[in-house]
Amino acid sequence: MAAIMLLLADKSRLVQKAFFTHSGVAQTRNIHGEQQMELDTYSDAVFMKAMEKSRLVKTVASEEQDDIVEIKKAKGSYGVTLDPLDGSSLIKTNLAVGTIAGFFNEGDVMEKGSRMDGAMFILYGPITSLVYTAKKGVHEFVLNPKGKFVLKREGIQIPGGKIYCPGGLRSEWAEPHRSFIEDLEGQGYKLRFSGGFVPDFQQILNYGGLFTYPALSTAPQGKLRLVFEANPMALIAEQAGGAGTNGVQNLHGIKPESLSQRTPLYLGGKREIELARKHLALH
How far apart are CA 108 and CA 194, in angstroms? Predict the structure, then answer.
């Protein structure tokens, strides 16, 4: 798994450089019917080609691919879930975006998140950083001016801060979720939401609190994908002393039924997750 993480980290430098050359809109849509950006398709191609060539990976499920990709003549047994460029709609305004990956040693990317062996994300911000877990804590590396990732922090734990990052239109929130957010605000939690999952979750790792994208009246299953986004980030949250839920059950207890499956999501410190569960259980 370490070799695959290093491979993705190495190729992320190409993605970072492509921000200058691939910032337009592609003439294609992904499996979810969403308009793709040039950088979506470029980053997907870069990571997929690298994994196929390495033969370290048996199967890949990418958010930009219609189906699970079986890599021929693979020597490794790993399955990888990949969101090549999460938040690509933010590129136009020069806000931070990221790459999210999850790893299954048995190669079955459609297993419950509880079977996941590791996860990582790469944040393309003022500094490019890589955060990963192999179920032995959460650690962060940053890309230095020489083009190498160097260790910044080990054993990251979500602190007891008070920020919240809420997705979705407030007018489309269900009453239990609205009640929960009002409770947080009443306790002095501050809203900090960029619109990007990776940079906003990085805020939670640094300052504490909660990221949420709930069920909406127009999207009862939420917006974020269980396989590509929720499960990998939930593993990082858990390893950093936090938790992840869909409001009813632990995210990692859900068996994916399809690659495009969406889920409401609450991710952050255990205190905030328990408070969310109480509010949602009361209604």
Answer: 33
Residue 158 CA: distances (Å) to CA of 84, 116, 225, 270, 278: 25, 20, 23, 9, 21
Are β-strands 149-153 and 138-143 bridged in parallel, bridged antiparallel, or unpaired?
antiparallel
Residue type, 87: G
Q: Which amino acid is at 164?
A: Y
The residue among 95, 62, 63, 91 whose CA lies nearest residue 79 is 62
- Round the CA-based radius of gyration of the chain to a whole number and report it: 18
Say how far apart CA 88 and CA 28 lie, in whole Å: 14
**What CATH number has the domain spanning 2-153?**
3.30.540.10
Identify the CATH assignment for 163-281 out of 3.40.190.80, 3.50.50.60, 3.40.225.10, 3.40.50.970: 3.40.190.80
AA letter at 279: H
**Domain segments of the chain: what residues?**
2-153, 163-281
pLDDT in tens, 39-97: 899 999 999 999 999 999 999 999 999 899 999 889 999 999 999 999 888 888 888 99
CA distance 79 to 109: 5
Instruction: Return all residues near 224 (Cβ < 8 A) that are at least 6 apart.
Output: 167, 197, 213, 230, 262, 263, 265
Distance CA 80, CA 104 (A): 6
pTM for the whole structure: 0.94
